[in-house]
Structure formats: structure tokens, C-alpha cells
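Thread title: Can someone regenerate the structure for this chain?

I was given the following input by a collaborator and told the matching C-alpha cells would be attached. They weren't. Posting the sequence so someone can regenerate them.
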Amino acid sequence: MSRFAGLRPLGFLNRPHAACAAVLILWGAGWGTSSPPAAHTPVTQVDPILATPDYWLDKPAVVQVEAADFYQLWNICRSVAHDRFFQIDREDYREGLLTTQPLVSKQWWELWRRDVVTVHGIEESTLATIRRTIRFQLTEEPGGRFRVEPKVLVERFASAERRLTAITEYHAAFSGPRPFGSAETDQGLAYPLDYWYAIGRDNDLEKDLAAAIERRLHG
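Best answer:
Regenerated them for you:
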């Protein structure tokens, strides 16, 4: 005798009308149908302020160095920046502000350069055009000592696609001026064809600069 002989099938399955009603109930509850996907915010829709230098430079410094002599500290900051091939752009003694010109970041084969100190940073600047700018802010502390806070702004280069309508335009595509217009339109807003936008701060380079300043002060 089969071991299932003593089992009785569910009663409603023997009734066609009841079985159809059960299927309709489950269908109405959403079984067997795919609900439309929930609306999500596009990943490209971000706050424009995140692409501005002021947004990142206004964030607090992650490291600072103190010294007793303002001019010694100032000159060391200059020297540390030069060691990494940065050129000084602005020197404001009254405001205690020392900044460099933007420097296109190193790629993986440029082993002699020290403007990028992490593997991730080197990978990023190898795959895209990235530049960094150093900003040293010096302030006087109570008691006559001075503090410097290094900040490093990281920016990415963006370039709109160039339309080629003839083979003769190929050689001048990336070496000459744009043949059409001066801006592109996206969602009703006009953007330049080539521009830099901020993507963050390089906290690792900031710490490395602070460590180099410390060594110069106490070396």
C-alpha cells in the first residue's frame, strides 16, 4: 500500500469554483504580477555645490602643525610645496594664506613625483585628468605661537564630446579650437565645453605635508 494512501487531498481543490476563486484572490493581492519599479533619484542628480572648491575648502582641516616662528613656518610650507613640484600662486602675509597653482597629478609611471601619496589616488589620476591645489592657512594662537593647516583640493577635468563630420577634422579634434559653439546644454543649463570641477580633498596628502613640516621644524 502506498504511504500516501491515507492522506486526503485538500477539499477546496476538488471544487473547481473554489479553486478559481483562490487564484483570483492571489492575483488581486499582487501574486503573478510585477509591480512597476519604484521611482529613484538618478545617480547623476547631485547637489551642484559639491562641485565647488569653496564647499570642500570650508570643511575643517584634518591635521595642523604649530611653531613659534611665523616666518620659519611660512618658508617651510613653501619649501615642502616646492619639493612636490607645486608652484606658489599667492602669498598673503596679512591673511596668513599661502596657495599653489593647480598641478596635474602624477600618473603611475611618474615615480619621481610625490604629489599623490596613495595607490587609489595614483589609479584615479592615471585613468582621468586630475589636478591638486595646496592651501596653507596660518593663524596666530594665544601665547604667540602659530598654527598652519594644510588643505589639498582635488579637481577633475571634464570635456564634452567633439563632433566629427569629416575625416579632415580628425587631426584637429583635440589640438585646435572648438568648431561649433562655446557651451553645451544639459537640462536647460549651459555648461562650458571644457572645465574643472571639485571632487573632494586629499586628506592623505594633507597629513603627508604636515609630517614633512614637522620634520623640518624639529630636524
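The chain has five helices and nine strands.
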